[in-house]
Write a structure and sequence with these properties.
- By secondary structure, this protein is an alpha+beta fold.
- It has two domains: 2-71, SH3 type barrels (Roll), CATH 2.30.30.370; 80-285, Fumarylacetoacetase-like, C-terminal domain (Fumarylacetoacetate hydrolase, domain 2, Alpha-Beta Complex).
- The protein is 18% helix and 33% strand.
- The strands form three sheets. Strands 1, 2, 3, 4, 5, 6, 7, 8, 11, 12, 14 and 17 form a twelve-stranded mixed beta sheet that branches. A five-stranded mixed beta sheet has the order 9-20-19-15-16, with no helix packed on it.
- Bound molecules: manganese (II) ion.
- The site of manganese (II) ion has 6 residues, from loops.
- Manganese (II) ion (MN) binds at residues 82, 142, 144, 173, 255-256.
Length: 288
């Protein structure tokens, strides 16, 4: 099932070029009192929501996918966890390019770096646009498979990792190149893109065998397969959960393959991940 959030926080099922408005399924989420529990409550209650969606789908109003404004399909993740260097060819291109390396010592292996976090406030959906904060500096696209955590867990074994995944999505880890910390260069508003929808794990199959392609203005920039991940999806979930308790709706961006490069206002990034989805994201400047 492909599930989107659209317009004014409506809930949709995506079927081809059509969106079924199943917003009434959100009524199964229990009302909350302050303070809200940690974790995205739509994802935390997803089994019940999904059951209600199935009952509503046949009679649901139908809209054209092209006519709705897609929001990030997870509204309230507690964190966006990111693998900084997780494809060998991306490590090599980073060491070879002074504009990426910026005088730092050689980038080595993900185990030397650990994971990093992007601010949840940086998150947008494919109905928005990436607004470059420093249009005079180099800002790169990084297409990444996004893993959506379905249930709370800590110290999750690799063998058990998939049971914690509810869905997958496309992620863009937008990045200003420079010397500052990752959380400063990668966490500006709109620098985390998620969507266009969630594709439930049962439809995706093996997440460690998916093609990824990113085109800018029709030209292929990134083309790879998640089989080249240094730490695969299972290892990343396990490793992240040693450090952080994972909550429903938490997002793991699994790292970008080779082919990163700059975008400028006016560009369109066409993003594709096999079995997950495809979407176009526009680039603009924050300053109009
Ligand atoms: Mn990245």
């Amino acid at each position: 099932m492909k599930i989107c959030r659209f317009n004014d926080n409506c809930l949709g099922v995506v079927e081809g070029d059509t969106v079924l408005d199943v917003s009434a399924a959100l009524d199964v989420i229990p009302p909350m009192r302050y303070p809200a529990p940690l974790g995205d409550q739509f994802i935390a209650h997803f089994p019940a929501v999904r059951e209600r969606i199935a009952a509503l789908a046949a009679g649901a109003p139908r809209l054209a996918l092209a006519q709705v404004k897609l929001l990030a399909p997870v509204g309230n993740p507690t964190k966006i966890i990111n693998a900084p260097i997780n494809y060998v060819k991306h490590i090599n291109e980073s060491n070879a390019d002074p504009n990426i390396k910026h005088g730092r010592t050689n980038i080595t292996h993900i185990s030397d770096w650990g994971l990093f976090l992007k601010a949840t406030s940086s998150l947008v959906g494919f109905g928005a646009e990436v607004q470059l904060l420093y249009p005079d500096r180099r800002n790169d696209h990084e297409l990444e498979l996004a893993v959506i955590i379905g249930k709370q867990g800590r110290n999750i074994a690799e063998a058990d990792a998939r049971s914690h995944v509810v869905a997958y999505s496309l992620g863009l880890d937008m990045t200003t190149r420079g010397k500052e910390l990752l959380s400063w260069r990668k966490s500006a508003d709109t620098y985390a893109v998620l969507g266009p929808w969630l594709t439930t794990a049962d439809e995706v199959g093996d997440p460690n065998k998916l093609d990824l392609v990113l085109k800018v203005n029709g030209e292929v920039r990134q083309s790879a397969n998640t089989s080249d991940l240094v730490y695969n999806v299972d290892k990343l979930i396990s490793w992240a959960s040693e450090k952080y308790t994972l909550y429903p709706g938490d997002i793991i961006l699994t790292g970008t393959p080779e082919g990163v490069g700059p975008v400028v206002p006016g560009d369109v990034m066409d993003c594709y991940i096999e079995n997950v989805g495809r979407g176009a994201m526009r680039v603009a400047s924050r300053y109009g």
